[in-house]
Amino acid sequence: MTNDLQSWGRFPLATRQTTHALAWQTDSIPTAGASLLPYGQGRSYGDSCLNENGTLLTTHGLDRLLDFDAATGVVRCEAGTTLETLLKLTVPRGWFLPVTPGTKFVSIGGAIANDVHGKNHHRAGTFGRYVRRFELLRSDGSRKVCSPEENPDWYEATIGGLGLTGLILWADVQMRPIHNPFVITETVPMADLEDFFKISRESEQDAELTVAWVDSLALGRRLGRGLFFRGNFAPPRFDGLPLVRSHLSHGSALAVPFNLPGISLNWLSVATFNWFFYRANLLRRGPRLQHYDPFFYPLDKVHRWNRVYGRKGFFQFQCVVPFSTARDALREIMERSARDVPSPLTVLKTFGDISSPGWMSFPRPGVTLALDFANRGDRTMKLVAELDRLTRQAGGAVYPAKDAGMSPENFAAYFPQLERFKSYIDPAFSSSFWRRMNP
Ligand SMILES: Cc1cc2nc3c(=O)[nH]c(=O)nc-3n(C[C@H](O)[C@H](O)[C@H](O)COP(=O)(O)OP(=O)(O)OC[C@H]3O[C@@H](n4cnc5c(N)ncnc54)[C@H](O)[C@@H]3O)c2cc1C
After folding, report:
1. Is residue 341 predicted with pLDDT exceeding 80?
2. Confidence check: pLDDT of 248 > 70
3. Is the peptide bond before 12 cis (omega within 30 degrees of 0)?
4. For atom 3 of ligand 1, which residue has the closest CA?
């Protein structure tokens, strides 16, 4: 049946997709007809989780927790299980996700297929490093258990493999120990881009978690002005702390009820938001104790916040550029995008040099920049193409999970293991992104 499943950016719109829902690991997948693509929670922004004219294998039903060893912290769960579900099980038992993206509403299958990164990349690398084993179902009906020891090439192709090597059924994930659900965080103001590099370098010695928010409207000499957030999981002395308001796990209380008109995000609204965000956070300078939920997942508090960009959807552009070219490249990319339409959410973070097992994994040493902007048609497509060009020129890469506009030539340049990866793609699997990259 046709469906209205979209990506988080809601651009491009996929209007002709069918779905095949999986409920049991023993279920088979269609063997003839349209191309197939696994679909987790649709939290990818562009078209890598879409399959126009094809079938989405939806995994919401594959959400069972199968095993948890509270002594070692290894959890086995079906691939449709969300990070939120996993945290509810493991946090009270003293284990947290080894790596988490900025939303807990993603599935384990999606986290593996995009080899997601988090605020601890400089210390921990990517999610894929903590996936001990998983089972892959191919369209010919074969099933492969994959790990660094069993079918290692399939393991490496599937981590970051964009859902194209087959359907992951379940996975074993190594969680990391914590003492309690709290994080000690600190907010440090940054005057400019140079300050970002300085504070990053200093913070990474002692802080496991780092990320920076940048005021996208501060340009010229003030470019890079913003706030640096750093933190560590709290030590045992905070165990058993009574849960007061600031320590409560925050449920998602709000939702954006309908699409806001595209014009609601203009220069003035972005400037107002940036002004308040900057000042409100400055007031909270100095170390403070926070529950992990608002620290890791501030955007999850508002359900369907993607509707604020209006009916035409929006882009998130995320690139990584090597340290050697980062200063000039970031300056150019930020100034170029600010001239067009300011991004209400501009995030900088350094990636460390811990490599991933995944051949197609996006993170690599350097600085990653993420920008959001509303879709304004051709003008936005031109901007994205320009940012893609600047990234390539700087020797960087664009994140496929966020992409709706990179060129096929640049994609091939960003992922040097692409040719090797191609021979592991399931012949029945494809995606809108993949066809766009291979016209
Ligand atoms: C608010 C927000 C913040 C984010 N922050 C970050 C961040 O900090 N770091 C980061 O790396 N990403 C981040 N992301 C992106 C998000 O983490 C990834 O796109 C993630 O992969 C989405 O998972 P999903 O379950 O929604 O999968 P989908 O978006 O539905 O699918 C993603 C890919 O996984 C494949 N897939 C899904 N399930 C399976 C399966 N069972 N077997 C095989 N393949 C499968 C799909 O085919 C597709 O290629 C963020 C997204 C949002 C909305």
Report:
1. no
2. no
3. yes
4. 102
